Amino acid sequence: MKQLVRFIPIAALIATMASCDRKDPDPQTGKPIELPCQITAGMQLTNHNTTGVDYIVNCEVEVTGGTLSIDPDVTIEFAVNTGLNIKENAAIVTSGTSDKPVIMRGNGQGNTWNGISIWSQNSTSRLSFCNILQAGRNVTFSTSLAGSIVDLKSAVTVWHRAELSNVTINGSDGVGLAVSDGAQIAVSSLNISNCTDEPILTYAGLLNSSFVLGNCTFSGNGSPFIGIYSTTSNAEVDGAVAIAKAPLPYYALRSLNFTGTAVIGAGAEIRFGQGLGLGVNENASLTINGTAADPVIIRGKNTSAAYWKGILIRSNHPDNIFTHLQIADGGSEDLGIWAGKANIAVGDKIEVSKLTLNDCTATNMAGCQVTVNQNGGTLVNNSPSITSVCAH
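Above: the chain sequence. Below: its structure as tokens.
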């Protein structure tokens, strides 16, 4: 910290020495301060510049220790090809308010800076009332999507622990928010607009009660979907999954094979990419809780016959119950060994499998509406419109 030449009251000096986190370096009213490239201890950023920009960034800032705390109404301006990286032993906390949000923006026109990457496993970062503008210039997210490596640009990338609420992301040259399969994340009240790709891309196994999308708004994005993916070459989605209704349909960029308890709530819509499928593995279950007024829709990204595989049930779990599901566009290829082409297949090979259908529809497919393994598959069909049921 630079030595100040002006007089410092004794009480202020004592308060400064007692603080665990150091204040921002040499704040001066009317002048922006350049952030250091390495921040190894806690730092508090204040709203000190009456002319607009409080801090400027001219490098890839790495925060490796303590908490980077940002006060309400702070504006940080990032130069071209710069970014903010929160590493393993650090955290970032923005304390914006609805009328005094924290603003992080690029310096210049277009997508000038890379965005925020949150790597910390040891501390939870919290972004609240924070506006992130003009980010996503370069690749910040590289991960395995069902066995293949994909590199993406993202305004905010979460690898581990983070909470985002009342965050605005505008103008990413990629996705708005990218979430790794190793993340522990809670989101709500996001406003994501004008991104080149999806507003959100996340591992499907993270969809649960902490991933609240119903109160989010999305507009002007290049891909009007919530992107979801699986990770392993077997396209597995681990753990308990709860897919709730969102303002946009979900789009499965890879096949999804549930290995635990999965529930899809009323009004949720999932689109699948060409040739992909949805599976329920042994010991797993899938419950679909649509209603007459708010059915669940599962179909291809493009509404053409035989665009995607369909759903394959390979478990005998009693919770495999589909209610008010509208499924369409399946049958692009056989749903499993001997299972044939259909929108839904119950059983693969000689597995004991069970499914109950209540007031469901199945349309626009190749093959049958439903196929059932005659050597261990059980279908309870309470859906008058499903009449094309074939044995395999």
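Residues 255-392 form one domain.
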